[in-house]
Amino acid sequence: MMKNTPFTEKHIALGAKMAEFAGYNMPISYSGINDEHAAVRNNAGVFDVSHMGEFILKGEQALDLIQRVTTNDASKLTNGKAQYSALTNNEGGIVDDLIVYCIEENKVYMLVVNASNIEKDWNWINSQNTNNAEMHNISDKTCLLAIQGPNACKILQPLTDLDIMNLKYYTFVKGTFAGVENVLISATGYTGSGGVEIYFEDKDDCAEKIWNTIFEVGAASNIKPIGLAARDTLRLEMGYCLYGNDIDDTTSPLEAGLGWITKLNKTTNFIAKEILEKQKVEGIRRKLVGFEMIDRGIPRHHYQIVDKDNNVIGYVTSGTQAPSLGKAIGLGYVTVEHAALDSEIFISIRNNAVRAKVVKVPFA
To answer: In the beta sheet, which residues pair with residue 327?
Structure first.
């Protein structure tokens, strides 16, 4: 049985195309990918991402546990700040990518993980919790809406006394929003177009109240509901990794271009730190790169990448026809010899080697 979010009936009533994603019945599109994509890039849109996972870690051992299981340095976080990070396994692969929120410095943190990895992540972190930090999985009772786009904060500001117009990237505030108390408003998102993500407890009529109020106040600005398909094209134009496609248990943060969240110099040893230190010294053999198609063709997940002599040099992890750019783009792993900018590579599409070139990300 698929799970529902508190907003599932809203999506169905709005005529959304629904499908299973990470065990949830989720909206894939409403008015169409291109229209929804443009709405977020140019104005504002609302995503239901309540399927994501949230864990609370509390107590004197909470920070130590986070430091041991994540690659970034959470000791740098102060109240109201968040941090992108990764969980690594014993082989140096990525268990998941996540966001760490510092709610009370050295005492209370929230970890936000990918929907498909909630159970895996919980079990992994719990297995490392040797000093008995207090852990709570609040995923099933937490709502998460992402209101994204250049006009998002301006539309939402009348709904709260909190100053969200001047909220710096990867910081958050907590307070009353749309008449609902204890709402966490975070300057984060997966689109590269600005905006916020709002977390609140699924109780009483909070979900109904917040959803309705956002669309009532946003009606004059033509705010739109947005599905997961446009979320994917938006994140891909920014070169953001999608777990299960671009990163997984077999890819290291250094291979994935996530060296910037891999703090090898932090004082706490984290899982597989020695493996990643060795990779940094010896060099990696493959690298995640962005590429754009030169010839016609759309790259798809798992298509082979070949060189001019048709030797396999890697594979596509994500690809699409980019709505903002009018051309096909993708991410993929290639050998480091072919990873330099402007390198010509070929995507194997229906047994044809179709020309592409390595480009800098973000694409947009």
So the answer is: 322
